[in-house]
Write a structure and sequence with these properties.
Layout (H helix, E strand, L loop, with lengths): L1 E11 L12 E6 L5 H9 L17 E9 L11 E7 L10 H17 L3 E9 L6 H12 L3 E7 L6 H15 L5 E2 L8 H8 L3
Parallel strand pairs: 2-4, 2-5, 5-6, 6-7
Antiparallel strand pairs: 1-3, 3-4
């Protein structure tokens, strides 16, 4: 997949402030500090499309990014451009902030995931070094229960030795009750093509 353009569009908390539902959207969620911003930057081929923070729980709004992509042609060019939005959701698990604020974040995420008509895929990022956590299992199960297509991505796989990666991927898929998960590393840039194949508009 070739990324022709990628730009930050806006941040929003309430439905009235969301962009017009005129393009397919793919939402990215995961535990705080799982590497969502790094994943988005790797997908877009940009260093700073999404802000990377070392402080867990810094994403407090829905962040919308406009992306134009095209299939890579054998001749060296590319096919017809397609547009979509990537949506960075606040991390779950241990986001910092008062309890009331965390409750507002939860309501904001649920409102979007349940009610956004152009949302076509929910990407759940799991820390590949740690393995699937209870909150990851809850998110995957909940995404399935509301009828969303769920794609599981195991991030930070570069932190595991190569001989351990396959077993860890099998563990994650079994724990989350999915057929498979995508092995991903923003640092070593593997998994990018596989993830685009899973989420690109067809």
């Amino acid at each position: 997949m070739i990324v022709l353009g990628a730009d930050f569009l806006k941040s929003a908390a309430q439905k009235k402030d969301w962009p017009q539902p005129d393009k397919p959207e793919v939402a990215f969620c995961g535990r705080s500090n799982v590497g969502k911003s790094s994943c988005l930057n790797a997908l877009a081929g940009r260093r700073a499309l999404a802000r990377v923070s070392r402080t867990p729980g810094r994403t407090r709004l829905l962040n919308f990014f406009e992306v134009r992509i095209a299939e890579r042609a054998r001749s060296g060019g590319h096919g017809a451009p397609r547009e979509l939005r990537l949506v960075d959701l606040p991390g779950y698990g241990y986001a910092s902030g008062p309890r009331e604020e965390r409750a507002r974040w939860k309501a904001m995420i649920e409102s979007y995931l349940r009610g956004r008509e152009t949302l076509r895929t929910l990407v759940v990022l799991v820390d590949g070094e740690l393995g699937a956590q209870p909150s990851d299992r809850e998110m995957v199960a909940w995404g399935k229960s509301i009828g969303r297509e769920v794609v599981v991505v195991a991030t930070k796989l570069d932190r595991l030795g190569r001989t351990r990666r396959s077993g860890r991927m099998d563990e994650i898929a079994a724990s989350l009750d999915v057929d498979s998960a995508i092995a991903f590393s923003a640092k070593e840039k593997f998994g990018v093509d596989e993830l685009w194949k899973a989420i690109a508009p067809r």
